[in-house]
Amino acid sequence: MSSLSNKRILLGVTGGIAAYKSADLVRRLQDAGADVRVVMTPAACEFITPLTMQALSGNPVHTSLLDSEAEAAMGHIELARWGDLLLVAPASADFVARLSNGQGDDLLSTLCLACPAPIAVAPAMNQAMYRSDSTRDNLATLKQRGIHIFGPAEGVQACGDVGPGRVLEPLELVNCAAGLFATGSLAGKKVVITAGPTREPLDPVRYISNYSSGKMGYALAAAAAEAGAETVLISGPVNLPPPERLTTIKVVSAMEMHKAAINAAEGADMFIATAAVADYRPVEMADQKIKKSGDEITLQLTKNPDIVASVAAMEQRPVTIGFAAESENLEQYARGKLERKKLDMVIANDITGDGIGFNSDDNQVALVSPDGIEKLPKLNKQVLARELIARLAQLL
Ligand code: PMT
Description:
- The chain is α/β, with parallel strands linked by helices.
- The chain folds into two domains: 8-178, Rossmann fold (3-Layer(aba) Sandwich); 190-393, CoaB-like (Rossmann fold), CATH 3.40.50.
- The chain is built from 15 helices and 21 strands.
- It has helices spanning 20-31, 42-47, 50-57, 68-73, 76-82, 93-100, 107-114, 127-131, 133-144, 170-180, 215-226, 254-265, 307-312, 330-340, 381-393; strands at residues 8-13, 35-40, 85-91, 119-123, 148-149, 153-156, 162-166, 190-195, 200-203, 206-208, 230-235, 247-250, 270-273, 280-282, 301-303, 319-326, 345-350, 362-363, 365-369, 372-375, 379-380.
- The strands form six sheets. The protein has an eight-stranded mixed beta sheet, with helices on both faces.
- Strand 16, helix 14 (330-340) and strand 17 form a beta-alpha-beta unit.
- Helix 1 (20-31) packs parallel to helix 3 (50-57) and helix 6 packs across helix 9 (133-144).
- The longest helix is centred in the C-terminal third of the chain and has 13 residues, at 381-393.
- The protein binds ligand PMT.
- Residues 194, 196, 212-217, 254, 273-277, 279, 304, 306-308, 322-325, 337, 349, 351, 357-359, 363 line the site of ligand PMT.
């Protein structure tokens, strides 16, 4: 049996006679270890009821973009981000056409537009419809965009025709889905990741910190866990829920993060420092709230330990990756950090660009190593995290 252990599958069901097979598909996906949430188009609901799919999946079924009750429970963007894979099975000719057009005129097509995870479609239609130039062109467009096409199979169809267009059997679809995750590129490895900002307390109500949201580090941690790694996430204070399937250690200050990182890095294969750690902390934290007095105040700061450099200096060091947040001379400064901190790679991001870097959903990075530099395009942080993990796994 293929493994989808701990994977979250968003199963999209469109209108066609093959929709009845989706009920069995839910069960087969669950047997392989997946958590399944079902999204149905209005046409799919004509062939099989949402109630059936809800009972089988054990989760509410989503059918409408304009359902305020469903949106309150889990909004469509949240739903799009929930899955590790969005699998549309069966995918009708009409849905394939709408997807290739980039339409967002119902819940499922909107999810496809918003979903950062891989998307797969399992076409199911009459053989003549499948053979038509329009459908062929539409499927070619989807393929070009990186959407996976599972099937179709050939054989006798519901209408009596014989030819290609039958949806793959549920177990075949499970195998195809599992194949997408089969890299196992970090299976058996331990990866430690720092994320978010640190807070350096001045007094009981004030601190020094920065704008890091933790999104980049959390996405990397999720991608490392997805690639099979035993993952430890050491997080400064952020407003993100602790990711599932990994261990999260919450810290506040740089000193706390340093201690947790050195402990966790013992025996680790890889350490990735995504956190924006405060370089300095107040020499003393005042016991009482500092009172306003005079026009100026002087804070005395002392240097924090460099966490990633400390890990890189360990006797049994893991492969050690740093980030560099730069506002100018990106490559030069990143290379300086690579050499000074004795790192294996620095992932440099330009933090001056709109919508990238600190506290944004996207990022644009360059991988700086002793061998050279590789620039990646602007990507959603979750998609970028998967790309980075695939590359970093090769360093092991
Ligand atoms: O959290 P987000 O909102 O998603 O934003 C992501 C990010 C912009 C914070 C992230 O992509 C990033 O660039 N993180 C590193 C930010 C940073 O502090 O860079 P730096 O150039 O100051 O530090 C260089 C490296 O040394 C980093 O890996 C940092 O984690 C590490 N460091 C720095 C100081 C210190 N005392 N200890 C460290 O380990």
